[in-house]
Structure prediction request, 231 residues.
Amino acid sequence: MLMSPQNLPENIRHVQERIKRAAAECGRSVDSVTLLAVCKSQPADIVRAAARAGLAEFGESYVQEALGKIEALRDLPLTWHFVGKIQTNKTRDIAENFAWVHGVDRLRIAERLSGQRPFHAPPLNICLQVNIGAEASKGGVAPAEASALAAQVASLPRLRLRGLMCIPPADLDTAALRRLFAKLAGLFASLNAGGAHLDTLSMGMSADLEAAILEGATLVRVGTALFGARS
Prediction:
């Protein structure tokens, strides 16, 4: 669904208030949680309106759609995150145009991103996707294999390993969601105890951002609650 720019400020305020309440409930500062606005299917003028309303971090899932928006909005100080499934034939476009990638789950993809990242650009920020719900239909490294992949990715020269991300199974109740988010947070803590120096826990979306924040999310990826359901 395409949203009128007039609706955005109210939606943004509502999501920010949800984040604030969840952070307060677990004794955290609201500033410890980054709101990533997932703007796939939204035109550049809606993204511009969201930026005018105070947002600066935007996520895209489709490379070709994203490239036009990134070009149209180069006059704005926006940070672009790729949050979709990564195809090998799209890694160059991702490496050249995004600041963050949230879905790396294979060394081969990481190697391509590192090799194709322009030398004049800062290192590409990477979050490893972990298949925390062990779903055959979803991408992501198995939790038991995350440590080995993290070490490999951290050694690549044009990447900066920042954290972990997950997409939990659909239709779980809050208690089950919190258990999975806690599992990812535990893996995050374990990797840091081993010297990984991670700072980003990318988990939680429109329907479950509170549960994610309560379990330690530092970044929530929100689309529907800001822009409406896609038609």
